[in-house]
Amino acid sequence: MGMVLSLGSVSDATIQRLLADPPLVWQIIAPDDPDVYARARREGADRNRPGFFARLFGAPATTGPTPAAPPPPLALSDGEGLIADLDKAWHGIHFLFTGSADDGRPPLNFLVAGGTEVGEEDVGYGSARAFTAAETREIATALATVSDDELRGRFAPKAMMAADIYPGIWDRDPDDDDTLGYLIEYVGTLRETLATVTGHGHGLMVFLS
Fold this sequence. Notes:
Strand order of the largest sheet: 2-1-5-4-3
Low-confidence stretches: none
Strand content: 5-15%
Mean pLDDT: 90
Number of strands: 5
């Protein structure tokens, strides 16, 4: 399957709830699985229990107060939830935006860095990251200053292969596999997604799975 980067629209109020209770992220990522949130809460509680040796040397059997009852489900407003994914093009797009593999100047490094991690809830390849509505507007504004033609000019197959840009397909013969076209197609998806998100006044959630 490989690593796919997904994008979701989340209001600032929803972001605050996610940060306060990270397992709630599953109600956005997997809304059709009603049990995954409860499982995540149980697993989080298990991680917080002291181990055998800690208990042996006097640690209490539980830490902190008894877990509260689960909060009510997220009530997502119009336009919130998962919107799109960038397939496996995300790392190549990041390279076009920043010229780097895992760094780059914000806000256009947002596909691999920045935002606020939604706790320690592993949703595939680490935690989801959330960008507030204001941060998302900054991303959209920055992207609007970069044309597709400029991004095409930054396509550098040899440098991308040397930098190990996932998924390592950039030196293929363009007559057989138009990898640059693949990237530009998903840049279009990203532009549309940001327009939708900012049009609702929402922020952005980014995660790899």
